[in-house]
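Write out the 3D structure for:
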Amino acid sequence: MKAVTWNVNGLRACEKKGFADFFAQIDADFFCIQETKMQVDQLDSLNFHWDGYHAFWNSAEKKGYSGTAIFAKQEPISVQYEMETGGVSNEGRVITLEYPEFYLVNAYVPNVRRDLERIPLRMEWEDALRQHLLDLDAKKPVLYCGDLNVAHQPIDLKNAKPNEGNAGYTLEERGKMTELLASGFTDAFRHLYPERTDAYTWWSYMGHAREKNVGWRIDYWITSNRASAKISDVIIHADILGSDHCPLEMQIDF
């Protein structure tokens, strides 16, 4: 099974930069996107078509902001938007699909912002998300993906020392990732490539950061521990443009 996650930083903008070509080329069983920045009533404005897929959209109330979507070849048993308790519920940040053998969760984790004003909200959201995943994991394995807005360890960003305490690399955010993994989950990329350096999924638009590969690994596939043995590969498609993030592919034997 092939599954892809990509923060497209605006689907309509990304569509004009080759999104449809990559979508067709990769031929994923599941294609999860974050930061769609569009409402369901704007879908007619897309030239991109998802024939052969079931599409699920979770849009923010605020126009042009946040939003998630999943394109799935197989129809799910059930669909849940957002989480039952905790976290913001009007920003279109979570979609959960249930299948016979696993749950698929696509999330766009709130950014704490440059001034770190959203750290309290982020901590509450992380706790709610972890509980959501644990509740699902009690029933069947979980495949969790998305823009998680945190570089977990120094190896996960180019310039760790000068970024200590900055958004995406605060002790609070990194601690919540540690807590999640310790509760029974596996970072799929680091499971296979524990020492790989210069492996990033996001680059600033400033200072030719992408050209120089001065990036951060903040997009993830995370699985229940008991599903980690099924992971056969995780591929960072750093050569695919169209967003400040790149697609992240997981191949797993489900």
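The CA atoms of residues 112 and 118 lie 4 Å apart.
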